[in-house]
């Protein structure tokens, strides 16, 4: 590996064998799965790029820490260890573990919905965040910069808020009707694109000006901090942890899925700057939904692993290699002329399937066609992010056309090597060279809600 992409900053002590299948087997396996990659067994997948959520590898330090977990129901040593790490990074006064990101959302988000007709504003709400906003009786509005939908042209911070749109929306809806502003870093739904420190500072100013609470959805805050160090003027010589601390200084609360930058397979975090009343309300709700506030649905040993993982994810060498892996795969695809979102974000490469297979109309799901072809070619599992995911218009029952038809190749943390990524790239190049043969899909069975998970299809 040349200097352009950093080699693995770890050596491998324990291995997990992965099963290879033949192309003929995969054709049958995919057919049996109803042409829906979500229905494939993991054992039938060679390289699994479905998600980076909870799929990372833990370090020897994390596994070691699990041995000293304290499984006390209340006030465990593991809780206090994790609490001190979270406070050290965020500078916030109050902390509570939860079972995963959506646990934090279900406990926290309803607290700020105080009357009918309220809104949360975000750069882009992640799916589960939007779901919990709506379950709490509020609406979710996105105020992301327009350049996030321009896949081709370089912009260092495509995850940013559109500040004008944000302020305009606050004035239009009335500040008393805004529950909070949710800063999603990196901006997952925009392809893991980063948000600049300047943008976070300005959003914070706007929040303060109107007396609105500012919340960070920080699933990938460490990756965001790395991008700031790499791309934003004045941050090149700063430590990642100090960039993270500055990030949290521009908000009042953190909700986090620890399955990403916590480097654990399950876990989540709520941290609140200084609002004791809000924290008390969250604790009350957490007892009913998550567990006693010093374990929040986690084992004691899980909290120890997370305490270690949070610090490992702030290590600059870890982050450089992580981001380089994603960039490596992106570069290989781009060199072959495959249309992808550029620049790549922190956790995945997004292939533009509308450009790749224009012969397939949106309601025959071009990204599903590419995803399935990639699986058949090499046993690589990716995921459709497009019109299939978007669903139907509740009024007309018509398929909604997504702005972008994407296939996401999501890289798990510390799991695969550059050689694995070469397998992915070679297979994807093969699919690209045969793109004119790709055909769309029709529903065989369409599930009424969250249809991408359980629907089955027939090839056209
Ligand atoms: C994953 C994720 C969530 C939800 O977290 P889970 O752990 O999957 O429940 C929320 N927000 C963002 C930005 C995420 O990436």
Brief overview, please?
By secondary structure, this protein is α/β, with parallel strands linked by helices. The protein has 17 helices and 14 strands. The strands form four sheets. The protein has a seven-stranded mixed beta sheet with strand order 2-8-7-6-5-3-4, sandwiched between helices. Strands 9-12-11 form a three-stranded antiparallel beta sheet.
> What is the CA-based Rg, rounded?
22 Å
Tertiary shape: globular
Portion in beta strands: 5-15%
Largest sheet: 7 strands, mixed
What's the number of helices? 17
Write up what this structure looks like.
The protein is 39% helix and 13% strand. The chain is α/β, with parallel strands linked by helices and 460 residues long. The protein folds into 2 domains: 23-52 and 315-459, Alpha-Beta Complex (Aspartate Aminotransferase, domain 1), CATH 3.90.1150; 60-312, Aspartate Aminotransferase, domain 2. Strands 2-8-7-6-5-3-4 form a 7-stranded mixed sheet, with helices on both faces. Strands 9-12-11 form a 3-stranded antiparallel sheet. Helix 3 (77-90) runs parallel beside helix 11 and helix 14 packs across helix 16. The structure holds pyridoxal-5'-phosphate. Residues 53, 100-102, 126, 128-129, 184, 188, 217, 219, 257, 259-260, 268 line the site of pyridoxal-5'-phosphate.
List keywords for this structure.
2 domains; 17 helices; binds pyridoxal-5'-phosphate; seven-stranded mixed sheet; three-stranded antiparallel sheet; 460 residues
Sequence-ordered SSE layout with sheet pairings:
Elements: H1 23-32, E1 47-48, H2 60-66, H3 77-90, E2 94-98, H4 101-108, E3 119-122, H5 127-135, E4 139-142, H6 163-173, E5 178-184, H7 197-209, E6 213-217, H8 221-231, H9 240-249, E7 253-257, E8 268-272, H10 276-289, H11 300-312, H12 316-335, E9 348-352, H13 353-356, H14 366-378, E10 380-381, E11 383-385, H15 387-390, E12 406-410, H16 418-433, E13 441-445, H17 451-454, E14 456-459
Parallel strand pairs: 1-10, 3-4, 3-5, 5-6, 6-7
Antiparallel strand pairs: 2-8, 7-8, 9-12, 11-12, 13-14
Pyridoxal-5'-phosphate binds at residues 53, 100-102, 126, 128-129, 184, 188, 217, 219, 257, 259-260, 268.
